[in-house]
Please model this.
Amino acid sequence: MKPPAKPRKASSRKHALAAELLPERELHRIVDTVLRLARSTGAQETEVHVDEVADNLTRFANNGIHQNVAEQGLTVSIRTVVDGHTARATTNRIEEDSLYAAIEASLSLAHSQLKDPRVLPVPGKQRYRRVNRFVKQTAALTAEERARAVRLACDLAIKKGQVAAGIFANGQSQSAIGNSRGLFAAYRETHAEFSITMQEDPAASWAKANSADVHTFEPQKLATRASEKAHLAVNARELPPGRYAVILEPASVLDLVGFLFYDFAATALEDKRSCLNDRIGTQLFGKNITISDDAYHSLQQGAPFDGEGLPRQHVLLVDRGIPKNLVYSRAAAKAARKNPTGHGFALPNEYGEAPMNLVFTGGDSSLEKMIASTDRGLLVTRLWYIREVDPYEKVMTGMTRDGLFLVENGRVTTAVRNFRFNQSLIEMLNNVELLGPAVRATGEEAFEMVVPAMKVRDFHFSEVTKF
Amino acid sequence: MWDLCTNALDAAQLRGASYGDARVMHLRQRDLTTKNAKVGTLSQSESIGLGIRVLANGAWGFASTDRLTRDGVSSCAAQAVSIARASALANRTEVVLAPESAYIDSWQSPFRKDPFEIPLEKQLSLLLAADEEMRRVKGVTLTETDMQFRKIDSWFASSIGSRIHQRKVISGCGIAATCFQGQEIQKRSYPNSFGGQYTLQGYELIESLDLIRNAPIIAEEAAALYSASQCPEKTGTLILGGSQLGLQIHESIGHPIELDRVLGQEANFAGTSFLTLDLLNKLKYASDIVNVVADARLDHGPGLGTFAYDDEGVPAQCTDIIKDGRFCGYLSNRETAHLVGLNRSSGTMRTESWNRLPIIRMTNVSLLPGAWDYDDLIADTPDGILMETNRSWSIDDRRYQFQFSTEIGWEIKGGKKIRMLKNPSYSGITTEFWNSCDAICKLDHWNLWGTPNCGKGQPMQTMGTGHGASPARFRNVRIGTAFSNQ
Model:
């Protein structure tokens, strides 16, 4: 039901500087405005998400900047609950008329479905552990500063007879969630990323770093590493496909194991689409594999609350090779008679939950030590276009990319043409011989995690490509 | 909207931009899913904002904002110019744009039934009925359905005088049944996997799919796959169904012909291309019967790559990509056209939203129909494997070596489909594969498939592309590699 007509006042969103996020009190005010408007509509319960980003990205190729962008935007997403019906509507307009229209859209969607007894009341107030991942210097990095760093990297490429391509990005974002039972949580963070590919025809190599603090990595060092590896990658030999010992650098590990973790959702097991069905509590992986989900780890990023506003909890997923625990949204927890773990996605959704802050327990083997211990094997810089071939055995396919090297008698001897792999992750995590220290890794196929480099025996390469 | 665009362009020009284009976009989307006879996602969203791209000091800058006021778009334009000047600090070559005329036009994609006007109850009830039909089949452990609608308005204005409004309505729908049994998870989808079929149409697309009749068929197949024989590992004859061939075109023709990849602009992320400039008009890409076009015109069909103008204000075109097997065309924009000897862009700049920079994208990259009747093609195959509906896809970063697996396969012996095969897969090298094509089915079997989820660019953009295809046959293909030696 629509409330009586009255003048609507626009939320006072101020933009003194283009790259300044709204203060938390403004997010609170938007949430309160929505809750006030919703009370007059017949919605029994209401939940509001407010998300804001201010991002910048400088992109370079052929030793010069070719794209350079900035964006700023805010969205308000509203979920209403009426008699066991729920639905969501999202808008990026914050005038009261627009917010009201979104509430009405949410109610209209909710009323279109049958009553669902699984719909839970929104949760009440929660207590959150504070995390600080907002670094002013990262937010303040300018287009000129990014351009100067890019220029230096490109100058290095020119000096070495190479061609550089990559990105230098920085930004800030914030999220708030509030509901009609008084829950409110807000979080903001910064992020910076430098990624570079150095090409020395016909080879290429790559390095990348990502952090809340732009000062934790040095673009020039990353450029130098990529440049040196690109030079080593020239004159690649073709080897026959087969099973090889591999030394996977952290980015390679990240991009592969990233495909494993949606299987740790309780909803995935209930749906029988998880590789952990009938395998919880068994010795599925090697005894040197221990994995947690920990939003509070010093190398992690992300909000300390989930899409329902529950605080994220530390969960031990795999203990010495045995899958021990799952993550639970509130609905999944109720169905399984467990406690929710703070990993739910925004409702309504069909996937339930997932761990998003993975931390592997590392070892003490450096990359150099792994190479020195290898009679014959391959050093893998990066993997590419990874896709699932078999969902239960978790067979993944993909390619090596940007630097594959042969290791013989404890040293890197030559570059090798790129391979396609078809490899079961379950088998791989049974074949880990050495682990490096866990680091914050960043790739392109999975979100950032804290993972170690790994030496793995009998990794299966099925075909070779032309370069 | 035009005032906002004009304000932004004026502000950019005032600050020294030599060229600018501004775009207001209003995007509306509705998502409905069900799982195991219950509603999953039920959401609606809208987003409106302005993005402006400028040239200053010979370099590009782009900024976007959701503050649609005179001050908001002016400061956004000023930011874009400031970013362009920063780009010039590390710019090696001055940007030169191919000439283009100014257009003042308004266009709307044709649709018969506005999906946003169809009652939600009706849409949900269709999904739940299809879900129910799948759940009736013994052995099915998970049923999923999916429906999505989008309405996108864009107002494009450029400093050369164009003012173009376009409205696109996109519909998509699909259903899937999964069986978990023993140590296997098997799945069948209709009419395509990963969300189904998407076109530039209204609700008439959904009504044409006949979900209720097809739901039990795919559910029965999903249940039967557990007992089916494993696809053998061999080198042999392969027949691909239309939707799988559409994805094969996307990955092994569509991406390699993007000129930004060829020129190294995607080297750090999406990769480059084996189609170096020296191969234009020389490379025998495919067998003589293979003809491929990139066609954004409505004449080609209501594909996800259909429009009247691209997001650089260039009219939709049809470009020959492969003619009689020979490689003859790239996807270009105003900045790159001259590098392949063209005096005009081929009109392929597209953007996901107001907050993203337009980049070179596939339009409808389609394999033109051949001469074969489908039944004749099967009858003409003494020994082969038919593969249908994609399950996984992967290709190297220069687009040479690929591997695909599909949900279902059929062994063909003596010109007949004799038994179902599970876990089918095939792999190859792009040009070897396309040169082995010896039969393409005719127009009666041709369909314009939609790929709604193509990712490219940094920041990442997701774009819909179209791929017309009819079933086709390939010889001497490596089959079964994905499951070899496991």
